[in-house]
Task: inverse folding
């Protein structure tokens, strides 16, 4: 069982050296206090420029008063945007903390125990990171699905992001477990 948290960033470049030291020491103290295993991910994710490109295309299509050279520039700009959107050149960084908890017993009690532990870990992370002035939220189901999609197929994640959490099975093979939950 996993829980992913989205974490904001802090712009250290705009801080004084003393402020940077204070933030880093607080973060180091927080990391030292964590007993559980976790994973941090700084994930470049594709930027979706489709709505911006569409707006630029509408300006081009609707505005008859656009001068010839302005029209050429706008057409070129739209081509450029389409090219960089389908490449890995334009990205935004998302920061995640992924907490995992093994389900010890494959039954309802095992599931509930793991869920209770992961809830406690989540609270600890959220409270600790807020003390370091970071904004932390539990990632939604669709964000987690998109995160894994980005890991396994960056190009498809950029061109055709998953829109729903109800996706077909992505793993073939392996062992299947059934959990009996009343």
Result:
């Amino acid at each position: 069982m996993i829980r992913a948290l989205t974490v904001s960033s802090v712009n250290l470049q705009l801080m004084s050296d003393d402020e940077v030291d204070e933030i880093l020491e607080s973060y180091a103290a927080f990391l030292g206090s964590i007993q559980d295993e976790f994973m941090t991910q700084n994930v470049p994710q594709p930027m979706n420029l489709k709505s911006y490109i569409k707006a630029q295309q509408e300006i081009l299509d609707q505005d008859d008063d656009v001068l010839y050279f302005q029209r050429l520039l706008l057409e070129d700009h739209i081509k450029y945007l389409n090219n960089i959107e389908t490449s890995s050149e334009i990205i935004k960084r998302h920061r995640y903390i992924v907490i995992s908890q093994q389900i010890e017993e494959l039954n309802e009690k095992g599931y509930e125990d793991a869920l209770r532990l992961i809830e406690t870990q989540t609270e600890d992370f959220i409270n600790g990171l807020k003390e370091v002035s970071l904004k932390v939220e539990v990632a939604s189901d669709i964000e987690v699905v998109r995160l894994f999609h980005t890991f396994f197929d960056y190009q498809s994640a950029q061109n055709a992001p998953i829109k729903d959490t109800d996706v077909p099975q992505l793993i073939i093979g392996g062992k299947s477990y059934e959990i009996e939950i009343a």
In short: The longest helix spans residues 108-131. The mean pLDDT is 82.
